[in-house]
Amino acid sequence: MSILEKRTLTDPAQNPTAKQFKHILVDTPGQIEVFVWSASGSILLESLASSFPTVIAYVIDTPRTSSTSTFMSNMLYACSILYKTKLPMILVFNKTDVKDAEFAKEWMTDFEAFQAALREEEEAGAFGGAEGGAGGMGGGSGYMGSYLNSMSLMLEEFYRHLSVVGVSSMTGQGIDEFFEAVEEKRKEFEQDYKPELDKKRAEREKEKESRREVELGKLLQDMNVSTRTKKDEPETVSDAEEESDTDEDDAQAGQADRRDDVGLSQRYKTALADTSETGQEDSFTRYIRSSNV
């Protein structure tokens, strides 16, 4: 985080020769579960979101998601990531130079088109499509078709909150559209997500402060109890006399402290009485008394 902040938040006036960055791409390769559902992944995302406008780009292998089953699997993954991270998301269909991603966009916007593709796979007796080989998974399943149909209906609302772009890392096709989607989601982050993140951060700080106050109260209570523990029994007559003298001194000191407390309380009440002439001061006095201060 310190490296990113140093490179991106540098004042151009202080270092005119420094290269200014407009976008930062953070790649998180590996299994989705390891990053999204781990403590380290959450910490990293929260750190990024607290310092920069943060957008999730979920990259999908377009040729390998051309069947209804793998497509729906990717959509469920994207849905889980969206609700886990609570950040703006872009669906990026990669490798469009191999297979066009228009079919996926159509499935997301036209329920009947997805139903037609699903019926076609059922009639062919295979789920898995082109990426599953010549025969797909083999043997159409009525349960599978019903399940995918239900999922498509459930995720229809989810699709409305996503930006979808098709890109080709090989040819660079669609990169401009991708960064346009990033800019759109950046504005969405500033408008909708950042206030919620700030609110949660303030709540966490408030909880930490409350815990610190509770721990401090327990510490003071423990210190007070420790000073009142029973003293050891005197071993000799001289020890008993010294202990008696000490007890008398402590009693006198305690009486002096109580007198000081009474005097302080009396002076406080007198000050309140003297300053109760104006309406503002009367209001403040009532507030103090109602708060049991």
Automatic annotation (TrEMBL):
Major subcellular location class: cytoplasm
Keyword entries, A-Z: Cytoplasm, GTP-binding, Hydrolase, Nucleotide-binding
Compositional bias segments (type: Polar residues): 273-293
Signal sequence annotation: none
GO cellular component, one term: nucleus
Biased composition (Acidic residues): 235-251
Matching SUPFAM superfamilies: P-loop containing nucleoside triphosphate hydrolases (SSF52540)
Domain of life, per lineage: Eukaryota
Summary of subunit composition and partner proteins: Binds to RNA polymerase II.
Protein name: GPN-loop GTPase
Source organism per UniProt: Uncinocarpus reesii (strain UAMH 1704)
